[in-house]
Specification:
single chain; alpha+beta; Alpha-D-Glucose-1,6-Bisphosphate, Chain A, domain 4; 3 helices; about 30% helix; globular; START-like_dom_sf; ubiquinone binding; COQ10_START; COQ10-like
Length: about 150
């Protein structure tokens, strides 16, 4: 099993970052590896979506169910795809400038992703591409936030 853990401090609010992560329909606009998203179900705080990966000649799709806690977290779990395991967690922790109160002006994003492929053949083909995607995932959302909300 592989694991990615990354955290970053941003001058964007937890709400702004939560919105970017939960608007899965917009992923093809800024994730170079994602060429299509199908939202399969929305039920309360849960979203099930199929993401189509197309990168470096590799094409695969996988489905996750995300359980969202508004402005706080997104918990991902595998529904189907080329993985034996895929689960992850985004956390959006509010921060204020020292000595200030009120609405948070910044946040700490903590991201964790655990994954393993369902076969050695799939791992040989998909793993190099997915490893790169997983390790640049948070950076892609940070860049998107800066384009939409300005650099902090």
């Amino acid at each position: 099993m592989k694991q990615v853990k990354k955290s970053v401090l941003l001058w964007h609010t937890p709400h702004e970052m939560y919105e970017l992560v939960t608007q899965v329909e917009r992923y093809p606009e800024f994730l170079p590896w994602c060429n299509k998203v199908e939202v399969l179900a929305r039920e309360g705080d849960s979203v099930t979506a199929r993401l189509h990966l197309a990168y470096a000649g590799v094409k695969h799709a996988f489905t996750t169910r995300n359980r969202n806690e508004a402005d706080r977290s997104v918990r991902m779990e595998l529904v189907d795809g080329p993985f034996s395991r895929l689960d992850g967690l985004w956390e959006f922790l509010p921060l204020n400038k020292p000595g200030t109160q009120g609405e948070p002006t910044a946040c700490k994003i903590a991201f964790e992703l655990n994954y393993a492929f369902s076969s050695t053949a799939l791992e040989a083909v998909v793993s190099p591409v997915f490893d790169r995607i997983a390790n640049t995932f948070v950076d892609s959302f940070v860049q998107r936030a800066e384009r939409l909300h300005g650099a902090g």
